Amino acid sequence: MIVQKTAPPEQQPATFEFSAENQEKAKAIIARYPQGRQASAIMPLFDLAQRQHDGWLPTAAMDYVAKMLDVPRMRAYEVATFYSMYNLAPIGKHLIRVCTTTPCELRGSAEVVETCKAALGVGLNETTADGLFTLREAECLGACVNAPVVWIGDDYYEDVDTDSMRKIVEALRAGNTPPPGSQKGRQTSAPIGGPTTLKEQTV
Questions:
Q1: Cα-flanking dihedrals φ and ψ of residue 155, to 5°?
Q2: Structure pTM?
Q3: CA separation (Å) from 11 to 7, 31, 51, 96, 146?
């Protein structure tokens, strides 16, 4: 189970507001929803706020979005604390989330977690001293066919094992972006050896 805790008061900014560019993006997001249903924009606006604020969502940003959408602050807090994609405290530059739900567990995610711990020198829910990495577990990333799955930034790294996980960490540490997707060359969710049906495209 993922436990979300807000940052302590000394880490919370006193205020938050969208940048001019994000103000325009927020207006466009809100306009997607029917009149009277603008409160439904709360999740994409939280995402926008989080991206603006170094990858985490302070309480001031929740309050700001709640006021913008005219919803009670408590409702905003409920949304932010329920969904694990929102980070309620500062994180490292790279947030590594290893799925440890049953399909990934059966395919070796526990070993992937241990590989991350050893490579980073931190435990779960901890950030490296240089601020480069934060390590977490994730509840079901929804890509079971390519388990184990690791979520980093906006990308999924699939079919991960201990060797490929070490290489991913090394690449990120060197400032590179390792190719996301299957680490075994699988075509989307096809069998490892390639498609077995519908091999040819016909008109």
A1: -120, 150
A2: 0.89
A3: 6, 33, 17, 22, 38
